[in-house]
Design brief:
The chain is α+β, with helices and mostly antiparallel strands and 167 residues long. The chain folds into two domains: 125 residues, Alpha-Beta Plaits (2-Layer Sandwich); 40 residues. It is 59% helix and 17% strand. Strands 2-3-1-4-5 form a five-stranded antiparallel beta sheet. The longest helix has 37 residues. The mean pLDDT is 84.
Length: 167
Amino acid sequence: MKRSEKESFVLRVKDELQKASTVIAVNRSYGITVDEITKLRKSMHEEGANLRVLKNTLARIAIKDSHLDVLKDMFSGPTAVAYSDNPVGMAKALAEFVKTNDKMSILGGVMDGAFITESQINALATIPSMDELKSKIVGLFNAVATKLARTVKEPGAKIVRVIAAKQ
């Protein structure tokens, strides 16, 4: 890659990383296969997240003088960067992959400008997704409405049963 290509690549990566609300650094082993990485990328794309394998020097240049600078020490050895505006979905996809594949581990990340550890990322992965939360809220509203309708209907139904019993 020529120097000018590297410069434009770094600018593009810097822009993508700084626009994302959450950036996570992961350590990947040299034994990981293309199929495994493809499977991870596919699951991350479903969650609205991206995974980039970067040269460490280019990654350090891309995060230099930004809120992501706290990640600079994590770029040694084979690393990759995951980024998204959906931190829960991305954390779920990464945590699920790391559980089933010992060739990758989560190093840490930055969420909304604050450093987060591996344990915090794993805790994020246990939070229900936005769709799950929305369906639970709709279920709660539906249950309340059903109980209210039953309560309002019951006095009239009692009168009808009394009249039917008298006949």
